[in-house]
Design brief:
The structure holds two protein chains of two kinds. By secondary structure, chain A is of the alpha+beta class. Chain A has 31 helices and 24 strands. Chain A starts with a helix and ends with a helix. The model of chain A has no long low-confidence stretch (mean pLDDT 84). The chains are: A alpha+beta, B alpha+beta.
């Protein structure tokens, strides 16, 4: 068929069937001419007319053939099918509504999952040309390596270094300092990204020399929010970490920088040449001869350089630099960096795999549920199909009809689901308080890519829930259906029949969803139920970051030692101490330590000041609190450091034995347990606090560059008011700016507050699974009861008791539920195993939950109980069958 | 061969085949539609010799080309068939 013919036919489809004046005229003219011919040959008027018609043949058939020639058969019969389907859907609005709603939920959930996946991981980096050419070295390297890579990559790549994004204390003229996320980058950063400034210029390797006047580049967003979109912003000065810096450039619109080392996108860029006075991260000459791996490297690969080739070359160079030519594997791993959040391949596969599996189970469940519904409905339509089959419709045509119906439903459901997802994200973005590039991208909701994906899964769903029932329904025993045997359409009961398979699958899928969601959601949330181990009411805290207020290291250490002493003199203040983090802050057991006689253990490590535990009022179960002596001690390698552990760590490491004086090894460092404290942080799994090892803050730490500053912990009858605090700090050093001032109960309430969306998501998926499975089960039970009406009637007539009848019906369900539940349990277990094997982080998160009884026993029991109710409700109908009525149907 | 209307075409087929091909004349219209769709003929309303309105079909250039191709194909095919079916000239009887 040529293209032209195809087009003619296609436009023919759009023309409506019916009277075609052109064809009618042509045929009339044909008949007249034929008649005239016959008249000429001497026939009578009547005879000529008759002969002309005989010669012409059936006019109807001729028209029909022309019509067919003008049509595209597939499309026109599709339109017929669609019209018929629409008519049927209008006739049973209840069925249509339930089906579309189920589909909308199932597809909508997948649309939400895929939007968030897309929003966080799959969007290309905004504002950057050719993001596909960007790559990143996953782990930080020392600065000299960067210089080496830069010099060796001529023609193959351009490369830039950036430190982990960290707060900067920024003050715009006329307002107080504010903590802004910044990034310390090498001068070639913007050239590597190939972005053009909106205003001013970028850092220039020739102009930005070590020791030069500090300069800063800000994003367009910062320029709008903090500089009032001032067109003359270039040349204005800011205070950055207490020092004056000149703005030399404003980034282009949409450009949000890149992430490194944290999930924070920077709003201000400082050149590595600015020096340590302005950026405490640059202390210890890290950007000259240091071996400290602090720099993340961003590469733009030249056309023709593949990621693998670049990685191999970088790796070879790194091996030479590190003098580790023999080491196996790769020293340098290169990952694509053209996306919002660069992920290494393993993590990307894990994330996509997990979400993909989740979507598969959700859609599978939806398909099984609707497939069952379609089967039941198909049974009710047995007569209709039998009639169509017996007057000559092909089975193919009927299957096509059924598939058309399910496609229309699926597309409706898909559109509704996508609209629901769009609305949901719209609502969320309105209630969301903080705005940063990541949440903004997440909250922008489904885009065209997600819409296409939704359409794709809708079509697959249509096939999923339409095909098997269509095949089953059209396999009819015509004679018995036409004889109006009420059970004929239902087919013979088969233990492994399609509807039972659907039910088993639904139960299994529901079990998987509930268990997996339970593991992740409930498991990780159990923490907020833990008791801290002491009274938090009198505890409050605030943070200071002297380094970012512009103090030198020694000034910083000095003021941090003076602050507790000065504040402790205030009326009503009981004790003041220092810590790295707010007390009870949630934390991960992410440090591996080893204890003689034990294998490696994961523990959270926190640094705290002298008198930390007595200030909190925490009970020392054994041993002593830290003292000023510990603070003053330096941290030489080889020296044994005192450590206080909480009771979880004590039990984990030493069991019943006395922990005091025991040694704990971490890398090259050795710790000795000097105390055991009752202390349970917010992060814990299933009621069990995380093991923590506290080590003393040292003067070196107080000088340091901790990016979150240092927390000052206060025990007082009433919280010190902000003005008083400012006054007291100003008396120590006027540059000090306190931030994050909070009471501990307030802080805990805030950290326990779960994002309502996050909180709702897991349970919604679980509930969706359970509800769908229960309805599916109830539907199939009702159908089975209907099918066995006669049998039940006879049994009742012969004297079967109510419980015997009930057992008969429920027994069938019981088998299905048991099989489904076991399959689901096994699948969830396997799924968790795979996840744990694939990611140590996930293993850390969920392995304590996997063995939790409430989840592994409670959830299946609950599901089975609900399933039993779902069976019982329709099964009860079997009891009310009148045996006479049931038998009379014969 | 100038433009012809449907009836004329039907008659021509019958006559040129020596009345061997006798068709239901109505069936040619679907074929005419197909030939139009492929761009081998075009149709236009006109007036016949005896002053009747009729739709006239004429062959296009690509139609001629197609006709030539089909004709030569048919001649080759029929020649082959003839040769295959012709009594062999030697050997077996």
């Amino acid at each position: 068929m040529t293209l032209r013919e195809l087009w003619c036919r296609f436009s023919g489809v759009l023309r409506r069937r019916g009277f075609d004046p052109d064809l009618e005229n042509e045929m009339a003219s044909h008949l007249e001419q034929a008649k005239a011919d016959f008249l000429q040959r001497g026939k009578s008027e009547e005879e000529a007319e008759r002969l002309a018609r005989v010669k012409f043949g059936s006019a109807v058939a001729a028209k029909e053939r022309v019509w067919e020639q003008r049509q595209m058969p597939a499309i026109s019969s599709f339109l017929q099918d669609a019209q018929y389907a629409a008519r049927r859907m209008r006739k049973s609005p209840g069925f249509t509504l339930v089906t579309v709603a189920t589909l909308a939920l199932g597809i909508g959930l997948c649309s939400v999952i895929s939007s968030s996946l897309n929003g966080v991981f799959l969007r290309p980096l905004p504002g950057v040309p050719e993001p596909d050419r960007l790559a990143m070295i996953w782990a930080p390297v020392p600065y000299p390596w960067f210089e080496n890579f830069r010099d060796r990559g001529k023609g193959l790549w351009t490369i830039a270094a950036t430190m982990a994004s960290a707060p900067l204390g920024v003050a715009v003229e006329g307002s107080g300092p504010e903590r802004i996320i910044g990034a310390v980058v090498s001068p070639g950063y913007f050239a590597t990204l190939q972005v053009q400034p909106l205003l001013g210029r970028w850092f220039d390797p020739r102009l930005e020399q070590a020791g030069g006047a500090p300069v800063a580049v800000v994003t367009e967003r910062f320029w709008r929010t903090h500089l009032g979109a001032d067109p003359g912003a270039i040349g204005r000065t800011l205070r950055v970490n207490g020092h004056t810096a000149t703005i030399i450039g404003v980034g282009p619109r949409n450009f949000i920088g890149t992430v490194a080392g944290s999930l924070n996108f920077p709003e201000m860029f400082i050149s590595v040449t600015s020096g340590a006075t302005i950026a405490p991260e640059l202390r210890d000459d890290v950007s000259s001869h240091s071996t400290k791996p602090l720099f993340y490297l961003l590469l733009r690969l030249a056309p023709g350089t593949s990621l693998a080739a670049a990685e191999a070359r970088l790796d070879a160079t790194a091996r030479a630099l590190a003098n580790q030519r023999e080491k196996k594997g790769r020293l340098i791993r290169l990952i694509p960096a053209g996306r919002l959040l660069p992920l290494n391949k393993e993590k990307l596969i894990l994330t996509l795999g997990f979400d993909g599996a989740l979507m598969f189970v959700i859609l599978g469940l939806t398909c099984a549920n609707l497939g069952g519904l379609m089967l039941a409905r198909g049974a009710a339509r047995g007569r209709e199909f039998a009639i169509r089959l017996s007057i000559g419709a092909g089975r193919r045509r009927l299957i096509r009809q059924l598939l058309t119906e399910s496609s229309i439903l699926a597309v409706l459901g898909g559109v509704a689901g996508l609209a629901a997802a769009k609305t949901l994200f719209g609502l969320l973005s309105r209630i969301q308080t903080e705005s940063n590039p990541l949440t903004d991208s997440l909250m922008s909701g489904p885009d065209l890519k997600v819409a296409l994906f939704t359409f794709l899964i809708s079509s697959l769903t249509a096939l999923g829930f339409g095909l098997a029932p269509a095949l089953a329904i059209t396999r009819l025993d015509l004679v018995s259906v036409m004889k109006a045997d009420p059970t004929a359409g239902l087919g013979r009961y088969r233990r492994l029949g399609l509807s039972n398979t659907f039910v088993v699958f639904q139960v299994a899928a529901a079990m998987v969803l509930v268990l997996i969601m339970g593991f992740f959601v409930l498991g990780a949330r159990y923490g907020s139920k833990t008791k801290p181990g002491f009274d938090t009411a009198p505890i409050s805290f605030f943070s200071v970051d002297p380094a970012r207020d512009g103090l030198t290291p020694s000034e910083s250490a000095d003021v941090l030692r003076r602050i507790p002493k000065r504040l402790a003199r205030l009326a009503g203040v009981g004790a003041v101490t220092l810590a790295e983090q707010p007390p009870l802050s949630s934390t991960f057991a992410d440090t591996m330590v080893s204890v003689p006689s034990l294998k490696a253990q994961a523990v959270a490590m926190q640094k705290v000041g002298p008198g930390f535990f007595s200030a909190l009022g925490a009970t020392m179960l054994r041993g002593e609190d830290f003292t000023d002596q510990d603070l003053l001690s330096g941290e030489d390698s080889g020296k044994i450091v005192p450590a206080v552990i909480n009771q979880t760590a004590a039990t984990d490491f030493f069991g019943e034995a006395d922990p005091l004086g025991r040694r704990i090894q971490q890398d090259q460092r050795t710790f000795q347990v000097t105390g055991v404290v009752r202390y349970a942080p917010r992060a814990s799994f299933m009621g069990r606090p995380i093991p923590i090892m506290f080590v003393p803050l040292t003067v070196k730490d107080l000088e340091g560059d901790a990016t979150e500053g240092t927390t000052v912990v206060i025990r007082a009858r009433t919280q010190i008011s902000m003005p008083v605090l400012r006054r007291e700090l100003a008396a120590i050093d006027p540059r000090l700016t306190p931030f994050h001032s909070q009471t501990t109960p307030g802080y805990l309430a805030e950290s326990d507050r779960v994002d309502p969306v996050d909180a709702a998501f897991g349970p919604t998926i679980g509930l969706f699974g359970v509800v769908l499975a229960c309805f599916g089960l109830a539907g199939v039970t009702a159908q089975n009861v209907q099918r066995r009406r006669k049998e039940i009637g006879i049994r009742t007539a012969l004297g079967a008791q109510r419980w015997q009848v009930l057992r008969l019906v429920m027994g069938e369900c019981g088998v299905m539920v048991a099989v489904g539940a076991s399959l689901g349990f096994a699948a969830a277990w396997a799924f968790v195993r795979v996840l744990c094997a694939a990611s140590a982080q996930i293993a850390l998160l969920i392995s304590p939950v996997v063995s939790n009884r409430a989840l592994t026993v409670g959830v299946p029991s609950l599901l089975i109980a609900l399933a039993a109710i779902a069976c019982y409700v329709p099964a009860r109908r079997a009891l009310s069958f009148d045996p006479l009525l049931a038998l009379r149907e014969e | 061969m100038g433009p012809l209307h449907g009836y004329g075409i039907a008659r021509r087929i019958e006559q040129s085949s020596g009345d061997e091909v006798l068709l239901n004349q109505g069936t040619i219209y679907a074929s005419l539609v197909r030939l139009q769709q492929r761009g081998w003929i075009v149709a236009e309303w006109g007036t016949s010799d005896n002053n009747r309105r009729a739709k006239y079909y004429s062959i296009t250039r690509s139609g001629r080309k197609q006709l030539a191709a089909e004709t030569s194909y048919w001649q080759r095919l029929s020649a082959v068939v003839r040769r295959v079916l012709a009594p062999s000239e030697g050997g077996e009887q």
